[in-house]
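#struct-pred
JK: can someone run the complex with 1,3-dihydroxyacetonephosphate? inputs below
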Amino acid sequence: MRRKLVAGNWKANGLMADARALAQSLASALWHDEVDVAVFPPFVHLSATLDTLRASPVAVGAQDSSEFPAGAYTGEVTAEMLADLGCGFVLIGHSERRTLLREDDRLIGRKLSKALACGLKPILCVGETAEERDQSRAEEVVLGQLNSIWKHLGADGLSRLTIAYEPVWAIGTGRSASPQEADEVHHWIRNWLVQRLGLPARNLRIIYGGSVNRTNAAQLFACKNIDGALVGGASLKPDEFYEIHLHAAASRLR
Ligand code: 13P
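RT: done, structure tokens with the ligand placed:
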């Protein structure tokens, strides 16, 4: 059985004192061992968060990493630097980066290759816009994004990813996908993975992101194909993030 992953993407929020306070609250909480928990602070808060959570089961990851190796790439943060710092996970291809920073599937493929080569565990984000869903193109768009990555990484690289399905229309809008809508897309992704990887595809986690909160988490986690959540806004509130993790733990007992 796949372990659930509850991941908190802090995005570009908070100053150092906020990151320290948030990490402190997480460090003092009692986490269930059957659920994996991770947080993704901004780059400049990574060191402080890692230090604060050193003795805690909460893993720390980065929100992005460079396609480049070390060298003359002003402003970039390399995957090797992140691994050296102690980051386990990295988010790649978040829709905000795809849209605001014009990241395309080719760039995302190169970033994934670099992250994997440096020993990071990438979480690849995919998802359709509201317009694409209205045109009944959600499946085509999501599987198209995955196909590009598969062509770039091959089966070996693909088999080392976590996939986060984050419909763009559900991110930061307060309008989560319904459990049925999310579960359907996760089912498409699972079938697509099985066709490419065979049985090992059953071990890959597919997590859901988009307005996950303490109220809808239990229903989402009850779905057969949903292996956890990538939480944005609610992950900035330690009590709510903790409660979401409790729902993930409870879903394993059902
Ligand atoms: P919200 O939970 O704020 O909708 O954000 C989701 C997200 O983008 C996580 O990566």
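RT: quick notes.
Residues 4-251 form a domain with the TIM Barrel fold (CATH 3.20.20.70).
The chain has a mean pLDDT of 97.
JK: thanks, will look after standup
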